[in-house]
Amino acid sequence: MDHIYGNIDLNLSATTGKKRFPSSPAQGVSEHTGHSVRESNTPHSKNTLKFVLVALGLLLLCALGGLCVLGVLYFNKGVSYESLSDQFTSAVESLSVQLHNATAAAEELKSQLDQVQVNYENVLSHVASLNETERQYEVLKVKYRTAHEVFSACKECQKCGQCGDGWKPFGVKCYYFSTDTLNWMNSSNHCVEKGGHLVIITSEAEQIFVNSSGETHWIGLNDLETEGKWMWVNKQPLTETGVTLWFTRKEGSDEPDNWKQEDPSGENCACLGNDYGDTHSWFDSSCRKLKKFICEK
């Protein structure tokens, strides 16, 4: 019966839509408590669901933003890499072209330098040839002057006959070998007084003849006007006669050496031989020394 009434109460509650209170206090507290729990848990569950949805939405937005950023970075990286690659390729090509041009320029410069070297050698050869031609011209000029003097002397000799007392003939000239000693200047003046001048040596044959005495003598050569510029007494430079017979040494300086130990003014007059009997060569000596001398006319 209770079962039947119970069902009747359940049906009545459902029909009227009103809440049915429990028959016993214990049961009512339990059901009320359970009912209260259900009332309080419903809003909390909704808030949690909203929070979760919002969080998921934010996470989704962040993920989308990250993807966008990664896409932009990847795109920029690709563009930058391609740009750098293009720049590098362009730079390599430019350097290759410059290297090729520099190589061609270097080869052209080397060719020009080689041509300059050839031209320089040709000029040197031409200059050497000109110097040799000039030297031969000077030699021929000296020979011509000597031949002219000989020819002129021959004419004079046909008139004069003999050289005179104390003079020795050789070729077309006459020579006087002094027996007394004078300094160079007085020797030169004495030759002039005798109608001649200090000897001028223009050939090795003449050198051999005047050397026959075996003694040192003054000759007509000096550099009194300009040091190192040797002149004959007839104002003819030594370089024009084509004959130089200065003494040479194996060790030390050759003659003329302008030695100043005996005379501070130096050695400015030439003599045949020295005080030691070496009469085959010329020496410069102090013009103040007393020596024998040779005149010619």
Short description:
The protein is built from five helices and eight strands, in the order H-H-E-E-H-E-H-E-E-H-E-E-E. It has 297 residues and is an alpha+beta fold.
Explain what the structure shows:
The protein is an alpha+beta fold. The protein has a domain at 162-296: Mannose-Binding Protein A, Chain A (Roll). 58% of the residues lie in helices and 11% in strands. The chain contains 5 helices and 8 strands, in the order ααββαβαββαβββ. It has helices spanning 2-16, 25-160, 184-193, 204-210, 238-241; strands spanning 167-170, 173-177, 197-198, 217-222, 231-232, 269-272, 282-285, 292-296. Strands 1, 2, 3, 4, 5, 6, 7 and 8 form an 8-stranded mixed β-sheet that branches. The longest helix is centred in the first third of the chain and has 136 residues, at 25-160. The radius of gyration is 66 Å and the shape is rod-shaped. Residues 1-41 have low confidence and may be disordered.
Q: Helices, strands, pairings?
A:
Layout: H1 2-16, H2 25-160, E1 167-170, E2 173-177, H3 184-193, E3 197-198, H4 204-210, E4 217-222, E5 231-232, H5 238-241, E6 269-272, E7 282-285, E8 292-296
Question: How helix-rich are the residues, as a percent range?
Answer: 55-70%
CATH superfamily of the domain at 162-296: Mannose-Binding Protein A, subunit A
The helix count comes to 5
Q: Could you say what the CATH topology of the domain at 162-296 is called? A: Mannose-Binding Protein A, Chain A
CATH architecture of the domain at 162-296: Roll
> Strand-residue fraction?
5-15%
The total count of strands amounts to 8
Q: Measured on Cα atoms, how large is the radius of gyration?
A: 66 Å
Average pLDDT, rounded to a whole number, is: 78
- Overall SS class: alpha+beta
Order of helices and strands: HHEEHEHEEHEEE
Low-pLDDT runs of 5+ residues are 1-41
